[in-house]
């Protein structure tokens, strides 16, 4: 359904005809600049378009200026754009030397006797072009006001790695140069904030081919961030009444047969052979839920035990194909801020509201305001995808809507977004540069209690099924830290900064004072280090700023005499000499309260 939403959005985009036309102009230009290149296809996409070519040579970004020059000539030629219909036989004659177009013609002619084509210019013109296309387009190439080629990559025909590799050029177009310039500026900002670049520059994580794709290695700086995030999650959950559990990293296949995950997720699960276990099959844990259900079931429960909140920072593994991997935003192994709340049906709405309040607490603390709530519902056209009967689903949907309304949350509904066992509420956060990520989730589950026999003894002495709520307000360490790197452009809040303070002695005679200052700061629980390198002071300050370290303490003769340090912030602001006791007090307060300010 997500793909259909994108298609609908593109159809309603007023720039779509312009970009669609610019795509055809690019096709024509590449065929002119690179004789032998054959246009294949190229749709408009969000914020631009791309074109695929069958070409055995190389096309590099260094070639973009000459391609763009020909594109501009086509635009300046003010070619009329006209729609035509042709029979499949007529179309095959035109594209007799292009096997990709012939395949498309054969495919589309099954649904219609006549195929739609567009021409640019009149036959015989220097830049005349004809292509199979459904439109829509602008009326004349002169309406394409501003465009830019962005990147080049390889792409398999129809996305199948068994097919031929094509050349794909990504580009964009706008109706004014001002809008194009603003978009290109945004792209540059996105590059600067790319979590993979920041992860490398700030020494947070690395991915090694020797270990495997999608398996990040947390470097010392990253490990500190991960530990700080988990410490916050655990402290908060303790305050909110959660009990901590820990479960194994693998299990017998049987567990996920009981949960019903096997038919839906087996291809995403990693299998393990256990020596001496015969043909008994094991999985590496892809999710924590079934393990927590068995902990709940480990002894009889009564209404006095409810709601029971079981929490775990559980590491799980799920298969993602290489094309889907994206640094730590989409890895194959990740650690979830997971918990399951077991409650009675009467408690379910209030528990849901409480969980939403927890979500808001985390987001408010991090200054995250741009997010939306999406309630994923089943697709009635593919009921076979879901477990449980209609009555159960209707009840779960009603409870979810009631809970969201009681929590005072505006939400959207997404057909097809449900989990296989119940409706799913996702919180989707938009970063400072406009990228949206599904970070957090909460689900009311009426199905798993029946699968696992999860009951409690109520006040009337009768056994009743519990309601399970799945929640992960901080998502996974990996995705959340990746998002925060992008959101803060690497300038992490003081509490999440791997190194909070760097001490920079001006000369060698100040090393002893710097060492004593570092010792005091560490004793106070702050993450401090001294830069004793022989590099000039300004170079060391610049290096600390490049590493996004919040505070630089400069120590020279005056600072030694007055037991102060000259404080510089990573923003470049110079606060001048400050008493060391005041520095400690100020930074500790910001650190311990997880304040977002610097001073």
TrEMBL record:
<dbReference type="GO" id="GO:0004829">
    <property type="term" value="F:threonine-tRNA ligase activity"/>
</dbReference>
<protein>
    <recommendedName>
        <fullName>Threonine--tRNA ligase</fullName>
        <ecNumber>6.1.1.3</ecNumber>
    </recommendedName>
</protein>
<dbReference type="GO" id="GO:0005524">
    <property type="term" value="F:ATP binding"/>
</dbReference>
<dbReference type="InterPro" id="IPR033728">
    <property type="entry name" value="ThrRS_core"/>
</dbReference>
<dbReference type="GO" id="GO:0005737">
    <property type="term" value="C:cytoplasm"/>
</dbReference>
<dbReference type="InterPro" id="IPR004154">
    <property type="entry name" value="Anticodon-bd"/>
</dbReference>
<dbReference type="Pfam" id="PF03129">
    <property type="entry name" value="HGTP_anticodon"/>
</dbReference>
<dbReference type="Pfam" id="PF07973">
    <property type="entry name" value="tRNA_SAD"/>
</dbReference>
<keyword id="KW-0820">tRNA-binding</keyword>
<keyword id="KW-0479">Metal-binding</keyword>
<feature type="binding site">
    <location>
        <position position="340"/>
    </location>
    <ligand>
        <name>Zn(2+)</name>
    </ligand>
</feature>
<keyword id="KW-0862">Zinc</keyword>
<comment type="subunit">
    <text>Homodimer.</text>
</comment>
<keyword id="KW-0694">RNA-binding</keyword>
<dbReference type="InterPro" id="IPR036621">
    <property type="entry name" value="Anticodon-bd_dom_sf"/>
</dbReference>
<keyword id="KW-0030">Aminoacyl-tRNA synthetase</keyword>
<feature type="domain" description="Aminoacyl-transfer RNA synthetases class-II family profile">
    <location>
        <begin position="237"/>
        <end position="493"/>
    </location>
</feature>
<keyword id="KW-0067">ATP-binding</keyword>
<comment type="similarity">
    <text>Belongs to the class-II aminoacyl-tRNA synthetase family.</text>
</comment>
<feature type="binding site">
    <location>
        <position position="289"/>
    </location>
    <ligand>
        <name>Zn(2+)</name>
    </ligand>
</feature>
<dbReference type="InterPro" id="IPR018163">
    <property type="entry name" value="Thr/Ala-tRNA-synth_IIc_edit"/>
</dbReference>
<feature type="binding site">
    <location>
        <position position="470"/>
    </location>
    <ligand>
        <name>Zn(2+)</name>
    </ligand>
</feature>
<dbReference type="InterPro" id="IPR047246">
    <property type="entry name" value="ThrRS_anticodon"/>
</dbReference>
<keyword id="KW-0547">Nucleotide-binding</keyword>
<keyword id="KW-0436">Ligase</keyword>
<dbReference type="InterPro" id="IPR006195">
    <property type="entry name" value="aa-tRNA-synth_II"/>
</dbReference>
<dbReference type="Pfam" id="PF00587">
    <property type="entry name" value="tRNA-synt_2b"/>
</dbReference>
<dbReference type="GO" id="GO:0000049">
    <property type="term" value="F:tRNA binding"/>
</dbReference>
<dbReference type="InterPro" id="IPR002314">
    <property type="entry name" value="aa-tRNA-synt_IIb"/>
</dbReference>
<dbReference type="InterPro" id="IPR002320">
    <property type="entry name" value="Thr-tRNA-ligase_IIa"/>
</dbReference>
<keyword id="KW-0648">Protein biosynthesis</keyword>
<dbReference type="GO" id="GO:0006435">
    <property type="term" value="P:threonyl-tRNA aminoacylation"/>
</dbReference>
<dbReference type="GO" id="GO:0046872">
    <property type="term" value="F:metal ion binding"/>
</dbReference>
<dbReference type="InterPro" id="IPR012947">
    <property type="entry name" value="tRNA_SAD"/>
</dbReference>
<dbReference type="InterPro" id="IPR045864">
    <property type="entry name" value="aa-tRNA-synth_II/BPL/LPL"/>
</dbReference>
<keyword id="KW-0963">Cytoplasm</keyword>
């Amino acid at each position: 359904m997500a793909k259909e939403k994108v298609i609908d959005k593109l159809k309603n985009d007023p720039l779509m005809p312009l970009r669609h036309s610019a795509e055809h102009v690019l096709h024509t230009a590449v065929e002119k600049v690179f004789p032998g290149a054959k246009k294949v296809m190229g749709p408009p996409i969000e914020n631009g378009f791309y074109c695929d070519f069958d070409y055995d040579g190389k096309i590099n970004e260094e070639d973009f200026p000459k391609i763009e020059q020909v594109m501009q000539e086509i635009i300046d030629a003010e070619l009329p754009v006209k729609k035509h219909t042709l029979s499949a036989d007529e179309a095959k004659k035109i594209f007799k030397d292009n096997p990709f177009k012939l395949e498309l013609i054969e495919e589309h002619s099954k649904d219609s006797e006549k195929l739609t084509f567009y021409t640019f210019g009149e036959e015989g013109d220097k830049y005349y072009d004809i292509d199979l296309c459904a439109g829509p387009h602008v009326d004349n190439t002169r309406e394409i006001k501003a465009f830019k080629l962005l990147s080049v990559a390889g792409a398999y025909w129809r996305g199948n790695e068994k097919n031929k590799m094509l050349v794909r050029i990504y580009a964009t177009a706008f109706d004014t140069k001002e809008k194009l310039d603003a978009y290109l500026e945004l792209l540059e900002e996105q590059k600067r904030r790319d979590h993979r670049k920041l992860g490398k520059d700030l020494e947070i994580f690395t991915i090694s081919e020797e270990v495997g794709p999608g398996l990040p290695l947390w470097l010392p700086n990253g490990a500190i961030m991960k530990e700080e995030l988990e410490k916050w999650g655990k402290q908060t959950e303790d305050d909110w009444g959660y009990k901590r559990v820990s479960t194994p990293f693998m299990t017998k296949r049987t567990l996920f047969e009981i949960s019903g995950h096997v038919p839906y997720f087996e291809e995403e699960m990693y299998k393990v052979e256990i020596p001496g276990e015969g043909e008994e099959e094991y999985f590496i844990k892809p999710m924590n839920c079934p393990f927590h259900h068995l902990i709940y079931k480990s002894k009889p429960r009564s209404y006095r035990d409810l709601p029971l909140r079981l929490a775990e920072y559980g590491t799980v593994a799920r298969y993602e194909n290489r094309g889907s991997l994206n640094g730590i935003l989409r890895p194959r192994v990740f650690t979830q801020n997971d918990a399951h709340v077991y409650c009675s049906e009467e408690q379910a709405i209030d528990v849901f509201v409480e969980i939403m309040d927890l979500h808001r607490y985390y987001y408010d603390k991090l200054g995250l305001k741009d997010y939306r709530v999406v309630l994923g519902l089943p697709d009635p056209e593919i009921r076979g995808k879901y477990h449980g009967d209609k009555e159960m689903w209707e009840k779960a949907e009603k409870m979810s809507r009631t809970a969201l309304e009681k929590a005072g949350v505006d939400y959207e509904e997404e057909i097809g977004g449900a989990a296989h066992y119940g409706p799913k509420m996702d919180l989707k956060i938009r970063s400072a540069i406009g990228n949206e990520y599904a970070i957090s989730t909460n689900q009311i589950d009426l199905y798993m209690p029946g699968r696992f026999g999860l009951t409690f003894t109520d006040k009337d002495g009768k056994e009743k099924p519990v309601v399970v709520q799945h929640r992960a307000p901080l998502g996974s360490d990996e995705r959340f830290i990746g998002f925060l790197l992008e959101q803060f452009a690497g300038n992490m809040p003081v509490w999440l900064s791997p190194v909070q303070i760097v001490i920079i002695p001006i000369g060698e005679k100040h090393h002893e004072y710097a060492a004593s200052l570092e010792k005091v700061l560490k004793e106070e629980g702050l993450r401090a280090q001294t830069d004793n390198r022989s590099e000039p002071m300004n170079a060391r300050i610049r290096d600390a700023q490049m590493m996004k370290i919040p505070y630089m303490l400069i120590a020279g003769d005056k600072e030694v005499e007055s037991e102060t340090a000259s404080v510089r912030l990573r923003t470049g602001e110079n606060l001048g000499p400050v008493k060391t006791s005041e520095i400690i007090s100020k930074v500790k307060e910001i650190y311990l309260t997880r304040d977002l300010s610097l001073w």
